[in-house]
Every structure is written in C-alpha cells, then in structure tokens.
Amino acid sequence: MSGTPTAAASSPGTAGLRTEAGSIRPCEAEQAERPALDAAAARAAMVAQTEEQGVLGPGLVRDALMVLPREVLMPQAYVRRSAPGEKPPRWDLLDWAAPQDRPELVEVLYGGASVLVQHDGEPLLGRARGSRSGAAITSMSTVMSVTAVLLEELDLRPGQRVLDVGTGAGVTAAVACQVCGDQGVVTLDRDRHLTDAAAVRLADLGFRPEVVHGSGEVGCPGRGFDRIFVSYTVERVPTALIEQLAPGGKLLVHVTTASPSWPALAIVERTADGQLQAELRAVEFAHRAGHGMERIFLTEEFRQHITTAPGARTQRSTLALPADTDRGLWLAADHLLGGGLVRDFSAEHLVIGAPGCGSWLRVKPVGHRRWSVITHGPRDIWREIQALATRWRAAGSPDRYRLLFEPDGGQRAVSACGRLSWHLPTPRPLDDGAST
What we know:
Layout: E1 17-18, E2 24-25, H1 28-31, H2 34-52, H3 60-67, H4 70-73, E3 76-80, E4 90-95, H5 102-110, E5 115-119, E6 130-133, E7 137-141, H6 144-154, E8 162-165, H7 171-180, E9 185-189, H8 192-204, E10 210-213, E11 225-234, H9 239-243, E12 245-255, E13 264-270, E14 276-282, H10 300-308, E15 313-317, H11 327-336, E16 342-343, E17 351-354, E18 359-367, E19 370-376, H12 381-394, E20 400-405, E21 411-414, E22 421-423
Parallel strand pairs: 8-9, 8-11, 9-10, 11-12
Antiparallel strand pairs: 1-2, 3-4, 4-6, 5-7, 12-13, 13-14, 14-20, 15-19, 16-17, 17-18, 18-19, 20-21, 21-22
Pfam families: PCMT (PF01135)
InterPro entries: PCMT (IPR000682), SAM-dependent_MTases_sf (IPR029063)
Family: Belongs to the methyltransferase superfamily. L-isoaspartyl/D-aspartyl protein methyltransferase family.
C-alpha cells in the first residue's frame, strides 16, 4: 500500500532538485545562503572523515553521499538535553527553518553520529520545534560509518531494483535513487508517519521511488529485487525477503540474539542459476532491533553491583583472555552459551552479566599474562567462555560462518570446517524498526 501523502509541510527549500543527468544540485538562492554553504562544507568533511576511517572508498556511493543534502531529508532533529540517568529524559527538536537552530543542526546532521528524528511515534510532518520530555526516541538515522559500510557492501549499480526495508529518514533510499535511478527503488516501513515524511522529502530531492507502508518481514510479495537492504536487526533472515531476491541479487541484514553485544551481518546472495549462498559475518556494530524484538540490557544498578561486589569465586588465571577483535568467538558465544549474556563495553576491562539469572564476570590484568577473574551466580561465565574458545580455535578461529537454509525452514550457522554450528531462532511475527 502506498504511503504517498496528500498534503505536507515543506522541507527547507528545494536544495536537491535533480538535473536531467540525475545529479542533485543546489538551487541558486541556497547557494547564496551562508548556512547552505556551511552545510555543504560539513557534508564534505563528513564524507572525508568516513574515507579516513577506511569504510568508504571512491565510487558511486561516495559520490551520492557527497551531493546528498541531509538537511532536506532531516530538516528537524532532536538533541538530548537531559543528563545520563535523568528522569524524565528531555530533548529539544531543532528546526532548519529556524536560523538560530542551523549551526547546531549542521553539527548534528553531519557529525557522523546517529540523528534522532522521531519521538514517541509522532508524525514528522508539521511538527513544532521546541522541547519534549518523557517517552523515548522511536526512530533515528544510523551512524554514518555503519551506513557507509553497508552501502559499499551492497554494491549498488545503475538500473538495479532495490528494496529498502525500514525507510526511517530516507537516507538509504536517497542513495539508492541517486545511484540506481528512482524507478526501480521501493522503500518500505511499518510506520506511516515515516513513509509519509520520506515521500515528501525524497520528492524535494527530485526522487519519486515507490513508498510503501507495510511489514518489513513481508516485503513486497510476488516481486523480485536485485538488492535488498534491511535497516534494523532481526533474529533470523526473513524468509519472505529471501524469496524476493532475484538471481544475481544480494540481501543484507543484521542478525543477533536478544543481547545487543555481539551482532552479525547476514549476507545472502542468489546466483545466476537461482542457488542461495549466505554467510554470517561477525561485526562490531549493528542497527537497532526491529519492532517487537526482545532486548536485554544491563541496568545501571546491575553494572554498579558487578563493579563493587566481591563476587562468589575469585581466581588467578593464565589462560589467554579472548580479545575484543575475536569477534567470531563472541558471535558464537552469543548463540552457544545459552543466551542472555551482555557485555558492558563501558567498563575498562572485561565485564559480562547475565541479567536473567544474576550471574556475572569481572576480569582484569594483574601481571604479565595473568588475570584476576571474579565470578558470581549460578553460571561460571569464565569457564563457559574458555571452553568455547577452545572449540573456536579448533574450528580455525573463524570470523564468519556459512549460513545454511534448511528444507524445513531452519537457518543454521556453521564454520567452514563444520566443527562449530548453531541454529538461528525459529520464526515469529516481527515488524521493522526503521533506522536509516
């Protein structure tokens, strides 16, 4: 079902009119405005920083990001004003139409961090700038480095049919339209407020892709796509999207358990003769969880308890501490150690908790290749990790796993040698949580 609105507030100018050659050019009036020039300089700096990080190289994606005025897609954005832990949380909605907001909004849009675009499921069109409190941010544009990595991996090319699942602010859809041409792009989201706003703002850039309000798990039945990009995290690859992948096509989606600590990127490709090839690649960062997906976290109280409590078991260990860069091990641990483990990445040394049962692990170095290991609760998390590390090394220390789609609908990750494997959870109803 189309999400095209009948009326909407206008975006800032028409900074993104497409030329006949398909590029985005600023209007002459905006070229004369200093804020627009500042935004252009900030955009170039953002792209340069992403290149310096090694996640973006020369090519069509870089060219599209260089000419994409994010202030047209996100003419309003939230900035958190409350301190960490302050209740209720407070945000200010900045508006490009307010000159006093523009300097800070430029920093928000082009700083490379997530951009907060929706509070408490509100409509995006026709909002008044100002303060909000309570509730939560319900949609955001993903960190630029993560978006760039995925767009590069997607390998967009002119003329491709693209399904963008999780419209959000429309950044991915805009890049796909710029690179591939908007005639073959479909962008879909479960939140009609997001699709309504995206349709208007993409049109302000000169793009008119098909904008669909619907479930990301369903996609567009009966159609085929050369590229499918899912901008939220799931527990398994949606079967309907696999079926909509055309020969020669590629699908990207982040996969994880209820724990947010050790995600994977699922890369699914369909060969020219229709065969599926897929892998799970351990990654450091992922999208937000999809709508309705269970998530577990360490509360501030639990973190403080782990930091200060004496623990039930203390030992000195000479066993090698698994490195943060051993992401293939941590990915396997997320699935094979019974689930429920969450890493506290804010801690100076290794801290892992199991909120479900209250178990925890605290490790710190106490000398050359010696560690103090303190554990508490019914689970001995240190013993579990070390036992799995032995299995992981015996399997060749993989950082990626083959992803097999079984006849009964199961999805199984397996190391190249076959010695380490696990099944992804069975399917359950889940809608998308837009993010990009």
